[in-house]
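yo, ATP-grasp domain-containing protein is done. seq:
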Amino acid sequence: MTSYIAESPIQLLKPASSIALWYANMNDDQAWNTSKYFPVLHDPVQAKLVIQQEQQLLWIAESEDTVLFHHQPEDEFLAYVEMVRGQGTLPHIQRLHHGESDSDADKHSQDKELTLLPFLLTEQVRQWSYEKGWKLRYDDADYVRRLNDKYQVRRFVEKNGFAVTKGYFCHTPEQLEEAYRRIQVQGFTQAVLKSPHGSSGKGLSVIDSEAAFHKLLAFIRRRAATFELLLEAWHPIKRSLNAQISIQPNEVHLLAITEQRILERGIYVGTDYAPQIPAALRETYENEMLRLGHLLQQQGYTGVIGVDSIVDELEDLYPIIEINGRFTQVTYLLPFVESQLHSHTFVESRYIRLDAERKYTFSEMKAALDEALEPDIHQRYVIYTYAAQQHAERWHYRVFLLFLGQDADSFHHMIDRFERFTLASLEGVEGK
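structure:
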């Protein structure tokens, strides 16, 4: 068995001898969370916008591939992606109707074998693939669910001797109170209560005061006298690292190390694709990620995982905070990012939420961003997702940008301007 840093991510992510069907079922893991032990807010508009993040498949799928979309992107956006990618024609887009595709994907195959590459393998996706006669590179949906379980991951981390954050499994309100007291005595000012499933800030509740803890505890007491919940200390974070690992039957490949931009309460806002990491830390981190990959390989796992890790303010590395046993949004951009790192020192992603009284086309949004961000040959940006959804007579947007730069000050100044971008910019364009 070998392990090494991969030089060509796309060759490890898709089968070489068949047509790839890319499918982004990005909301499916929410169905796994059945516990109701702490308040969860559901925003149906944002959920629909998340579905449109399937547009990211256009940045990894090759011309002969097919992408299975729930939502048809604007023609202007598709033309823009084709131009920026510079890799020939876009993949074939097949619309899904009520979760099923028609026969166009099979016609497009040109008699080649079809392999489904879902964002997340679930039992429903596995059955769908078998019914359609599509191959899967890995079909153990039950194992994938366990791998995405925060509780299972913590027990795995403890069992295999990885450094682990302070935390306790609790089964009664009294145990929760005792665990919170222990976390306080250990000097932590914040804690986090985790449910088994959820990513990007979902499935957890950050506790930043004793009053907040008792309010949450009262909520839990009203729902159950016994349960299983995980209470962890919130370590002050200096860096939030992420590793992309490809695990094959005979090889483990480290695809990329990135750094996540995380808000105080654990909300993901972007990724640094070219982080500057001290050599000693990078070597330790790479070794721990490859060790993790080999351990999962020994259990029979095949596929891609994303691993969330932290370095705390004491410079201690906690290599496995969470495992995402699936593709991630970072994965989909890797081939394009790799092509840009030859000419750009800095590469980071960000996104913004906007809403307006009317629909703004992609070209209108692009013109407003150009005016606000003033890109040039040294510092520029790429829009890699343009999601728009109408609700209650208003239009809502999630716009994802990849920033590319050569000068640190100018690069970060552009990102700062983007984070202050408002609809006033759009109104200025409209009035011209």
